[in-house]
Amino acid sequence: MDWSQHALPSMRLEPRFGDRVVPAFVKRPGSVWAMIAEAVAQNADGEALICGHVRLSWRQVVDRAARIAEGFRKLGLKRSDRVAILLGNRIEFPLLLFAAAHEGLVTVLLSTRQQKPEIAYVLTDCGANILIHEAGLAERLPDARDVPDVIHRVAVDDDPRVSRFAVLADNAAAAAPVDVHEEDTAMILYTSGTTGKPKGAMLAHCNIVHSSMVFASCLQLTEADRSIAAVPLGHVTGVVANITTMIRSSGALIIMPEFKAADYLKLAARERVTYTVMVPAMYNLCLLQPDFDSYDLSSWRIGGFGGAPMPVATIEKLKATIPGLKLMNCYGATGARIVAMGPDGRELPHGEIGELWIQGASVIKGYWNNPKATTESFTGGFWHSGDLGSVDADGFVRVFDRQKDMINRGGLKIYSAEVESVLAGHPAVIESAIIARACPVLGERVHAVVVTRTPVAGDVLRAWCAERLSDYKVPETMAITAEPLPRNANGKVLKRQLREHLGT
């Protein structure tokens, strides 16, 4: 796969969001809706969205989105109003995103795992004017008096207590789309709030367009490509790496309501999937299926992953079983500048480890209603990622750990991903999480939570690690279990929860 700069659309430096200067694609759609219009012009009758028995072409998608857009107009929604979406993976999800883009509305994505207080906080913070939700989640919704900005509530399923989805969908197609500026906010995604209240990360139209162009260009996606959305659509991976990237390529997006490894393999084989982006745990679960080798996955050429390190053992197994599959670690973006910074805010020499700062057209414009967090998270146009990594002389980025997950054992730094990768190579291990155990002498010691497929003693696993790691990196204590690790809606391991259980 040609990753050279000449294989990508030409770029130039442009001012962005006031004080930033970033590389931007010279020729690009001016908004998310403009990108959708290009997709229908490119592949009008090609498959666009597939979910269960529903199959829509790009022409049909645009027609349905325009009808929902007219429904938004009839409800009195205007450019920049916020539309909160509380849905799982279903066909209405992308249609609502497209309709909002048509009207210049801002979509606010909620997780189906959030509870009433969390939902109330997000709705209040963003000032959402309308909430669109699944009827089955109605009991989790805050009372109307607690979220006075939410004037309209619409259920995509039948719910006699709120408006039916027909209020939006059963309309004539809206006229011309609303004019937007590419720096207008298109979407707000809230952080997990691990260090305080969740922050609303604002994605502008230009952020989404550039990210989608990067995926489509680097991975050489075309209208012939077919992607399965197995991750939650309400997460940035689901939205950008799946939905809007397939808009840019005018290919087909197959929506999987809920990830189950056996169902994923059946769907991937039946639909001749070519491209996916998932978290490493999902690949591991696929490999654990006893009939994995019986599926024809020869069409699957690109397997993107992110959100967590991919164990070397998993990469080797996938390479052996699907030789035509190229695995891609999705981090940062082509055209973005990534530097490793020291604690003093100075760029570190090649190869030295520091916090990775990122600058580029795909980087968020800031945090909604939170100028303090925006100021603290940006320096000179660079966003502070919170990841520890290095950049070598050839520009290759290596990510070692989250800053908050690094273990400091008496001054010796231990990166959890390295130890987890070694444990993943043991045949009895499904997955593991490395966390710090408080120590009055050394400050922190290494503790492992290990999920196994067959019984194995901690001493055996420690011996395995001792043969492959420096002595100070070997876990001194272990919790071995058959229960899966706790994860958030995006598939990331909740190490905070593990630390709380450990009492550190």
Compose a concise summary of this entry.
With 504 residues, this protein is α/β, with parallel strands linked by helices. It folds into 3 domains: 10-258, Rossmann fold (3-Layer(aba) Sandwich), CATH 3.40.50; 337-402, Luciferase, Domain 3 (Luciferase, domain 3, Roll); 406-502, ANL, C-terminal domain (GMP Synthetase, Chain A, domain 3). The chain is built from 14 helices and 27 strands.
Describe what this molecule looks like in 3D.
It holds the Pfam family AMP-binding_C. One of its GO terms (molecular function) is acid-thiol ligase activity. Residues 37-340 form the AMP-dependent synthetase/ligase domain. This protein has 504 residues and is α/β, with parallel strands linked by helices. It folds into 3 domains: 10-258, 3-Layer(aba) Sandwich (Rossmann fold), CATH 3.40.50; 337-402, Luciferase, Domain 3 (Luciferase, domain 3); 406-502, 2-Layer Sandwich (GMP Synthetase, Chain A, domain 3), CATH 3.30.300. The chain is built from 14 helices and 27 strands. An 8-stranded mixed beta sheet has the order 9-8-7-5-6-10-11-19, with helices on both faces. Strands 17, 18, 20, 21 and 22 form a 5-stranded antiparallel beta sheet that branches. The longest helix is centred in the first third of the chain and has 17 residues, at 58-74.
